[in-house]
Fold this protein.
Amino acid sequence: MQFVREHFPALAPEYARRYAHADFADAAYKKQMSALVKSICKKHGIGERTREPLAARADQSDVESEERKKPIRVAMSEPQALLFA
């Protein structure tokens, strides 16, 4: 909570309420967030994660390394940069 209070003070009361009695979000919030992420992934053409280990996927002969997508850098807001530093 210290990080939230320090960097996102407007969110602190909501976080305190949500996590006052549990370490995890309640089922309704999880369901809401799951639906939101699913819709955003669909909108941007992001498929579901595979459960196959990364090493097994890297060994696939039908996918040449040149065909694999390279990661892209995106501009982040200052709070995002703090979160993902």
